[in-house]
Design brief:
The relative contact order is 0.15. Strand 8 and strand 9 form a beta hairpin. With 407 residues, the chain is an alpha/beta fold. The termini are far apart. The longest helix has 20 residues. The strands form four sheets. Strands 4-12-11-10-7-5-6 form a seven-stranded mixed β-sheet, with helices on both faces. A four-stranded mixed β-sheet has the order 1-2-3-14, covered by helices on one side. The mean pLDDT is 95. Helices cover 42% and strands 16% of the residues.
């Protein structure tokens, strides 16, 4: 076996399909978000504007978050020193979990190093707790949920995206006595559409199923205290397990679940992804707790964020660009060709200093390649003017079709 040739072939396939991903070396500078510096491969630098970050509200630059992190690192040092079971649980971790359980109105919360690990570890552990568990998973669930369901060794059913009727068919076909769990998302980040939370909860009640919702792209941004779409819609109490992230709207790092005290206790006791992983650095936990606490009371920031998203959508639609609009803060513009998607991304960066990463397969299905914009409250009018002009120019230059993309 020529291992080097095997690697060459695998990488060549990505290049040939236009799907090879290039890391853009950027340096965020405190207090200047969304501005950053792009360090080119040749060593030169260019000022750019980041339009594809997940720090949706700019909380990674917020003074309260930075102050909390400084205080914690000065008090404790850099790392946690161990897993949560072995010296890695500090007052900062407990404070963060208390903030999160309060946020979601649950008895407890459990913090992981990422929301990916939280999904994977929890969903792969649940069949150990409920033998014979059947998991019903939305077809467009995040890769971390898919992996957790795949690895758990239990039964799984995949229902068509947001298709409550299909979910009912699957539930009706299974043993009424079997334990069941329905796993879905509140905001699906590639199209920006919402999950039918109320209808799924109704089915869960009817078929005695647990509910598991991923609110990763909603926590901090929806609901009167930023607990997500389930809070906005008054449905949090009907969700058994809520998954969220600290790395997007909260601007730091980490993931979590919020649930009953018994559920969190069982997951922390049985999930290898929790047991054998070094805990978050105390400074990260401190910054995340400060961010969660702040956003519980900053509805004005959430409203500015939604306003920015609506303005950008309106202006891109005005150009006739094929926008996918489901009413959320996600702004995807359909390209439909991986080579042209990468080409536009490159030209935006080189010619206009605008950074937006192309979204290609396997993140989205082939033929649905897109640019995914994430406007924040600090992307001001001048920055938006520059983006709109650049998109108008490049769409014509690349001979791409115009017209509203069907939601």
């Amino acid at each position: 076996m020529d291992y080097s040739a095997g690697l060459d072939a695998a990488l060549h396939r990505l290049h040939a399909e236009g799907r090879y991903r290039v890391f853009i070396d950027i340096e965020r500078r405190r207090g200047q978000f969304p501005h950053a510096v792009w360090r080119r491969p040749d060593g030169s630098e260019r000022e750019i504007v980041v339009w594809c970050g997940n720090d949706y509200l700019g909380m990674g630059q917020h003074p309260a978050v930075l102050a909390a992190m400084h205080e914690a690192i000065d008090a404790t040092g850099a790392g946690s020193g161990g897993t949560r079971n072995i010296s890695g649980t500090t007052l900062y971790h407990k404070r963060l979990e208390a903030e999160l359980s309060d946020l979601h109105g649950k008895e407890a919360a459990l913090v992981f190093t990422s929301a990916y690990i939280a999904n994977d570890a929890t969903l792969s552990t649940l069949p150990k707790l409920f033998p014979g568990l059947i998991i019903y998973s939305d077809a467009l669930n995040h890769a971390s949920m898919i992996e957790g369901v795949r690895r758990n060794g239990g039964a799984k059913r995949i229902f068509r995206h947001n298709d409550v009727a299909h979910l009912r068919e699957l539930l009706e076909a299974d043993d009424p006595a079997a334990p069941k769990l329905i796993a879905f998302e509140s905001v699906y980040s590639m199209d920006g559409d919402f999950g039918p939370i109320r209808e799924i909860c109704d089915l869960a009640d009817e078929f005695n199923a647990l509910t598991y919702i991923d609110e990763v792209h909603a926590v901090g941004m929806y609901g009167p205290r930023g607990a997500g779409v389930a809070e906005r819609d008054g449905l949090m109490a009907r969700i058994d397990i809520i998954n969220g992230t600290l790395a997007k709207a909260y601007g730091v790092m980490g993931g979590y679940i919020a649930s009953s005290a018994k559920m969190c206790d069982a997951i922390r006791s049985y999930a290898p992804g929790f047991i054998f992983t070094t805990s978050l650095p105390p400074a990260v936990a401190a910054g995340a707790a400060a961010s969660v606490a702040h956003l519980k009371g900053d509805q004005a920031l959430r409203e500015r964020h939604q306003t920015q998203a609506r303005i950008l959508k309106m202006r891109l639609k005005g150009l006739g660009l094929p926008l996918i609009d489901h009413g959320s803060h996600i702004v995807p513009v359909h390209v439909g060709n991986p080579v042209k998607c990468k080409m536009i991304s490159d030209m935006l960066l080189e010619d206009f200093g605008i950074y937006v990463q192309p979204i290609n397969f396997p993140t989205v299905p082939r033929g649905t390649e897109r640019l995914r914009f994430t406007p924040s409250p600090v992307h001001g009018p001048e920055l938006m003017d520059g983006l709109v002009r650049a998109m108008d120019s490049l769409w014509a230059r690349c001979e791409l079709s115009r017209g509203q993309k069907s939601a």
